[in-house]
From TrEMBL:
Lineage: Bacteria, Pseudomonadati, Pseudomonadota, Alphaproteobacteria, Rhodobacterales
Coiled coil: none
Family in the record: Belongs to the HAD-like hydrolase superfamily. CbbY/CbbZ/Gph/YieH family.
Pfam families according to UniProt: Hydrolase
PANTHER family noted in UniProt: PHOSPHOGLYCOLATE PHOSPHATASE (PTHR43434)
Protein name, UniProt field: phosphoglycolate phosphatase
Gene3D superfamilies: HAD superfamily/HAD-like, Putative phosphatase, domain 2
UniProt-listed Enzyme Commission number(s): 3.1.3.18
Amino acid sequence: MRTVVFDLDGTLADTSADLIAAANACFRGLGHGDLLDPEQDALTAFHGGRAMLTLGLSRLGIADDALIAAQYPVLLAAYADGIDTHTRLYPGAVEAVQALRAAGYATAICTNKPEGLAETLTRRLGIRDLFGSLIGADTLPTRKPDPAPYLAAVHQAGGIPARSILIGDTETDRKTAAAVGVPCVLVSFGPEGAGVARLAPEALLDHYRDLPALADRLLGA
């Protein structure tokens, strides 16, 4: 079965504001106030909690791996409390996934967000039932760009890796697809915008309405 595997943050949904809010909650708890900006630092948000903590503390001249490790679970707890406060699905995402499924595709999510948080978010957004599998950062011993999570997502959705594509928004997704040997489609409406073209994916996606036809082109009928 042909399968389309989606990243979550920055691909299906813009989660940056809620991620930044969680990091800023950590900084306030440390007595520093808000150190990250929801708009200017959105791209860092999609590189994960540790990246946000590192960036914020660097603005104070602090480089402390132990402090970052200690604050990471605090950040996750803060994020869980406000996981869907500002998060929104990108326009056309639901309709595109529904169209793929109607055309006989399997659909899956492979994300570097912890599985529990990804399950909570997709259910709150009302999209969990649209995907045959969901593999998170801690589902397996490894995470993207290691190929194992992607392969697990495809298999659990009932698909065949050789007939699959990855829809993502970052270099991590590009490297994952390369490691598996499948086409990579990067969205140009994500955190980096059209700048993702520098990663030379097999295709760029400017709007979700174009995805069904693009999937047909890359995977055949």
